[in-house]
């Protein structure tokens, strides 16, 4: 057994992993939950399949905990694999921006797109339409804003907290070096928050919505709608929504490299080289235990897998494989762990699906 850093999680990789079924329903009722009044304390809760997950987007896994964000009711839910119970841990069910310095379940959010957890189970949330990044303390459940002033814009490099402006940040991921990376989607930039000092810097993107050039320095490269991030020891992986492609920043050299997608919108290339394939608005990305990229090809209603060693792309779930498993409707977030396999947010079907590993 050895350890590999995948996204936020340090996961054991075993020679003989436990078997997983092909694909199955993990959670959600298939119905949305849109609210005009707050949820009562303690609600909703129950088994994963009994709790309505209105337009689930982000998914995070750490040990026996699984967190899911929902944007129809602006909440974060936690599933405990030990008790088999799902509960609301953040958001009241109604849209807003309130509650800092208080309990997260009584705070309001506006499209909490993605959530990540550190080793202490502190949660970092891309509160997308509030244009901020927030933190939920893993011990007290108190929520704070760690960067962003709530107004859309671009400001604050070299500064911290409310001196910073984002424009619809969608994805966050811990970089294993004391920082939190933020996909500042509307600004076409990748930014980093130093979690010790709070200072923010731009590490890639010029603000111009164009594709980068393969092999150029990431700091001077363009990005075109960076939407989802994953990290391992060597690389920062970026799915570009408007750029319909996947790129990799080499953490040692600082160069950006083309991984998959021609940049043109389409649905082609399965069975061939990833760089010759086409995507349509990819909005989720994760690494599995075989160093393969799982890409949520949202507007193609599919999950696709890139085998980096074999230089091959295929559809794993939905899309062209829907007859063999599930028909998806604008899926978004995805996460992988050795304990659970992969989970994908089948967003507009208001459910989360569990995928196989092989």
Ordered list of secondary-structure elements with their pairings:
Blueprint: E1 2-6, E2 9-13, E3 23-27, E4 45-46, E5 56-62, E6 65-70, E7 75-80, E8 85-90, E9 112-117, E10 123-127, E11 132-136, E12 143-147, E13 169-174, E14 179-184, E15 189-194, E16 200-204, E17 226-231, E18 235-240, E19 245-250, E20 256-260, E21 282-287, E22 292-297, E23 302-307, E24 312-318, E25 334-337, E26 341-346, E27 351-355
Antiparallel strand pairs: 1-2, 3-27, 4-8, 5-6, 6-7, 7-8, 9-10, 10-11, 11-12, 13-14, 14-15, 15-16, 17-18, 18-19, 19-20, 21-22, 22-23, 23-24, 25-26, 26-27
Output the keywords.
four-stranded antiparallel sheet; five-stranded antiparallel sheet
Report on this model:
The chain has 358 residues and is mainly β. The chain is built from no helices and 27 strands. It has a five-stranded antiparallel sheet, with no helix packed on it. β22 (292-297) and β23 (302-307) form a beta hairpin. The radius of gyration is 19 Å and the shape is globular. The two termini are 18 Å apart. Residues 1-20 have low confidence and may be disordered.
């Amino acid at each position: 057994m050895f350890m590999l850093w995948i996204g936020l999680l340090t996961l054991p990789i075993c020679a003989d992993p436990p078997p997983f079924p092909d694909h199955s329903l993990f959670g959600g009722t298939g119905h949305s939950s849109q609210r005009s009044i707050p949820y009562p304390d303690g609600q909703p809760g129950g088994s994963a399949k009994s709790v309505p997950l209105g337009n689930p987007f982000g998914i995070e896994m750490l040990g026996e905990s699984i967190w899911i964000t929902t944007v129809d009711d602006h909440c974060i839910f936690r599933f405990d694999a030990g008790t088999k119970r799902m509960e609301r841990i953040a958001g009241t069910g109604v849209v807003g921006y309130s509650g800092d310095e208080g309990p997260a379940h009584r705070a309001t959010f506006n499209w909490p797109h993605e959530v990540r957890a550190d080793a202490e189970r502190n949660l970092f949330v891309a509160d997308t339409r509030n244009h901020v990044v927030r933190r939920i303390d893993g011990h007290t459940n108190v929520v704070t804003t760690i960067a962003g002033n709530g107004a859309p814009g671009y400001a604050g490099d070299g500064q911290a907290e409310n001196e910073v402006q984002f424009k619809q940040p969608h994805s966050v991921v811990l970089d294993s070096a004391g920082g939190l990376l933020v996909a500042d989607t509307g600004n076409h930039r990748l930014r980093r928050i130093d979690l010790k000092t709070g200072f923010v810097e731009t590490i890639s993107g010029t603000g111009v919505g164009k594709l980068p050039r393969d092999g150029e320095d990431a700091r001077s490269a363009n990005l075109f709608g960076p939407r989802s991030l994953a990290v391992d020891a060597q690389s920062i992986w970026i799915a570009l929504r408007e750029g319909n492609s996947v790129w990799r920043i080499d953490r040692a050299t600082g160069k950006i490299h083309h991984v998959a997608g021609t940049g043109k919108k389409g649905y082609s290339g399965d069975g061939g080289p990833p760089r010759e394939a086409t995507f349509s608005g990819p909005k989720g990305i994760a690494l599995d235990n075989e160093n393969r990229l799982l890409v949520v090809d949202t507007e193609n209603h599919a999950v696709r897998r890139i085998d980096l060693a074999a230089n091959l792309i295929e559809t794993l779930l939905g899309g062209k494989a829907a007859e063999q498993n599930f028909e998806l409707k604008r899926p978004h977030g995805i996460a992988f762990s050795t304990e659970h396999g992969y989970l994908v947010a089948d967003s507009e079907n208001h459910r989360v699906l569990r995928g196989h590993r092989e």
